Amino acid sequence: MNTVQEFHDFINYSALVVLPLRGREFTWSRSGGEAVCSRLDRFLVSVEWKEQFPDSFQNRLPRPLSDHYPLTLGSKKMVRGKVPFKFENMWLKAEGITDLIKKWWEEVEVTGFASFVLASKLKVVKEELKIWNREVFGDVRLKKFSLLGSINALDAKEESVGLSSEDVDRRRREREELGRVLQLEEISWRQKSRALWLKEGDRNTRFFHRTTNSRRRFNFMASVVVDGIRCESIENLKNSVQGFFRELFTENEPWRPKVDGLLLPGVICKLDI
Questions:
Q1: Which of 25, 139, 160, 271 has the least CB density, counted as fewest CB within 10 Å?
Q2: Helix 114-132 vs helix 97-107: angle between axes, to the nearest 10 degrees?
Q3: Could you report the per-residue pLDDT of 114-141, keeping only the tens digit for each?
Q4: Count H helices, E strands: the chain?
């Protein structure tokens, strides 16, 4: 490839993805009278591979002799911290969920200001939803894999010894249930991707999945530089950011002027009503 444009055309034509680079921006540099830096080396992966390893990245290592920096391919799960509660839109597809929420809401008896009553009721409904999701609704991803495994087992049985009428009915029911579970999964990924402009129900789960992973990578903080020092580990990141803002908003001046004991002139206004 003779030009940079041809290289980028090849990447686009082959539907390849360039993994994010950690460490620095360039992978090659030449010193001398005029320093030159460029990003020549990189890992190129397919979209399907990227979906299997969404947290993969390139890491630049120190170079001992060569003009090129060695690169390593890594994959580390993003640490997101405590995830706040979020109402899942797919819950609305469950039968009787609106009646349950209404029942939980009306069972709470709280007195006080309107804002306090609202906050208290929302807190109770949130806890009830967590329990209901864990014990009744279940994990959609696990349901999908369980149904796929059962359907594949029945398909293998059909090829070997054949299926009975009960097996045929069971496979039909499981396929219908799988379609419902796939719809729930699509609703969940659509909500996470925030691509609400795209119509729900058109089997765009893969697109929603890619959009969600892209948002997570964009919002993920891999490293931070504080006072010229680069921090990459989770603990160093937390301590550096916390220390920076503590110093920024901490007052170093021990003395403050006071107005205690001062006789200030008052202003008397007379209103004629």
A1: 271
A2: 140
A3: 889 899 999 999 999 999 999 999 889 8
A4: 8, 9
Pairing of strands 21-22, 56-60: parallel
Instruction: Show the domain range for 71.
Output: 4-75
Spatial separation of the C-alpha atoms in residues 116 and 125, rounded to whole Å:
14
Q: How far apart are CA 18 and CA 27, in angstroms?
A: 14
- Residue 272 has which token pair? 């004629």
225-265 residue pLDDT tens: 777 777 777 778 788 888 888 888 887 777 777 777 777 77
* Helix residue ranges, H only, 54-135: 97-107, 114-132
Q: Is residue 93 part of a domain?
A: yes
Alpha-carbon gap, residue 97 to 103, rounded angstroms? 10
Q: 261 lies in a domain?
A: no
Amino acid at 219: N
The whole-model pTM stands at 0.55
Domain count for the chain: 2
Tallying the residues shown for the chain, one arrives at 273
224 beta partners = 231
